[in-house]
What we know:
This protein has ten helices and seven strands. By secondary structure, the chain is of the alpha/beta class. It folds into two domains: about 5-160, 3-Layer(aba) Sandwich (Alpha/beta knot), CATH 3.40.1280.10; about 175-230, no CATH class. Strands 3-2-1-6-4-7-5 form a seven-stranded parallel beta sheet. Strand 1, helix 1 (about 15-25) and strand 2 (about 35) form a beta-alpha-beta unit. Helix 8 runs antiparallel to helix 9 (about 200-210).
Amino acid sequence: MSEIPSIILVRPQMGENIGAAARAMLNFGLHDLRLVAPRDGWPNAKAVEMSAHAKAIIEQAQIFDNLSAALADKQIAYAATARPRDLAIKIFSPFDAAQKLRQTPEFTSALVFGPENCGLNNEDIIACNAVVTIPTNPQNSSLNIAQSVVLLAYEWFKTANIAPEKVPEPAIFSEIEGLFSHLDGELDKKGFYKTPDLKPMMQQNLRAMLARSGFTLQEVRTLRGAIRALTANR
Length: 234
């Protein structure tokens, strides 16, 4: 059975937007809604009111404290955001992102959207494999979160006839995070981070490289074995 992308709303602020996003999901055949730290708590009556016939999606929504937890069982994640200027990360159009997902239907995936007031931050973006940017008028480029869900869900829905490709299966994000934690801990012990001021940026760069790597589970295990071999007491 083909995997259907989850929709992850990170720190959403308004129940109405959550409900409208759920309604758009139902329109285009999506059903797994995940919420990361909703501002007004959960459940939310305004979300139910706005969801129309998608009430079941609202009722079954999963709540997470952070994006890492929401992505833990996913292999592919695309962040819906404007083009990031200071991050080296792949950038797809909505159609290209949908095509990529359709070509690998057996992999668990997610489309990630940020809060209404500021969108996804760099930490959120580097947790994903790539960015999806919706072309808009540069003089008024901000989109409502539910509008963004509509556009990406529509692109996914209309690419239903794209033939899948056979590609290596990537590790889930919790395995990638485990690799990062292992590497980060050993680097810290060896004094790799020269100054406290540089440490957060260096960690961010390492995490971003691993998130977009597409490593398979076996590759993750091999790398962790290599780290253990290099750091073993002699």
